[in-house]
Amino acid sequence: MGTGVVDCPDQNRFELDIGGELALAYYKLDGDRVVLTHTEVPQALSGQGIGSRLAKGVFEQIRASGRKAVPRCSFMAGWVSRHPEYDDIVVG
Predict the structure, then answer these.
(1) Strand, coil or helix: 83
(2) Sequence-ordered strand ranges (E) for 1-92
(3) Among residues 82, 80, 72, which one has the least CA distance to residue 39?
C-alpha cells in the first residue's frame, strides 16, 4: 500500500494530495543526501495526521532511493526523532 506521497523533483518537493489540498515537503539535493528544508500542511487539514502521513511517505521514498535524509525542517526533525525505524537513513 502506497503512502500517496509523490516526489516532484522539478519543484524540489514531495506532495501529498488530500482532496485537492496539497501538503508539501520541500528539499534540496546535496550529493546523495536529501536535505528537508520546509514542510507545509494546509490549515484546513491541520490536526488530522496529514503531516505525519507526509513525513512517513517522504522517509519511505528517501529510503527506496538509496539516499540519506538530512532533516533541517523542525517538523521533519521532530517526526523522525520519534521514529527510530528511520535512523539508518538519517544523517546530521
Answers:
(1) coil
(2) 5-8, 13-18, 21-30, 33-40, 68-71
(3) 72
Range 5-24 average pLDDT: 97
Q: How far is CA 80 from CA 20, 83, 88, in A?
A: 26, 5, 11
* pLDDT tens-digit series, residues 18-69: 999 999 999 999 999 999 999 999 999 999 999 999 999 999 999 999 999 9
Exposed/middle/buried for residue 6 (C-beta within 10 Å: 0-12, 13-18, 19+): middle
Task: Of 7, 85, 80, 71, give the one whose Cα is nearest residue 34.
Answer: 71
CATH class entry, domain 5-89: alpha beta
The pLDDT tens digits of the residues spanning 28-38 come to 999 999 999 99
Q: Judge whether 52 and 11 are in contact, CB under 8 Å.
A: no
